[in-house]
Design goal:
By secondary structure, the protein is mainly alpha-helical. The protein contains 8 helices and 3 strands, in the order ααααβαααββα. The protein has a single domain, classed as dinb family like domain (Four Helix Bundle (Hemerythrin (Met), subunit A)), CATH 1.20.120. Helix 2 packs antiparallel against helix 6 and helix 2 packs parallel to helix 8.
Length: 166
């Protein structure tokens, strides 16, 4: 984690996570299906595939946060496996996917995540912990910062890909 990551406050994390759904609505507004599924190159994801990826990751994080925050005193820290995005994306049939469905599922997962973190006290963000397969013991704050960064990067990518479509 770099120094910029450590400086994110709980309020900044919460605000960024709260705004992602609205930002996704905005970038996909009035975008035709042909643009949604267009890959800039054979090795790049289409805008819809990026949204699918964000939905999948969002669902994983909602589940992880629920496990962490619902932990009972004395229980072992939840163990979090690495998320294999390529494996998950290889199971996607793009012909069966829509922006409406994926955005709706993303919003549902995000609502679940936000319901768990919205009223936490400042010290709870560092009190709640998990054990990650690659990163070892992590606080809730440390877990969520990369999610914020990932979503910012993908939103910038989507804005660039879709900016000429409107």
């Amino acid at each position: 984690m770099d120094n910029n990551d450590a400086e994110l406050t709980k309020d900044q994390i919460h605000e960024a996570l709260s705004n992602t759904s609205v930002d996704l609505h905005y970038v996909f507004w009035n975008i035709p299906r042909s643009v949604q599924i267009h890959r800039p190159s054979p090795d790049d994801w289409s805008p819809l595939e990026i949204l699918i990826h964000l939905r999948q990751v969002g669902e994983v994080y909602a589940s992880r946060v629920k496990r962490i925050v619902n932990l009972e005193y004395g229980d072992e820290l939840p163990f979090l496996h690495n998320f294999d995005e390529n494996k998950q994306m290889s199971m996607v049939d793009l012909d069966e996917e829509t922006v409406k469905y994926n955005l709706g599922q993303f919003m549902q997962a995000r609502s679940e995540l936000l319901s768990k973190i919205s009223f936490l006290e400042a010290d709870e963000w560092d009190k709640y912990k998990c054990k990650h397969e690659s990163h070892g013991e992590m606080t809730l704050r440390q877990l969520l910062i990369p999610l914020v960064k990932r979503e910012e990067q993908h939103l910038d990518q989507l804005k660039e890909l879709l900016s000429t479509a409107n």
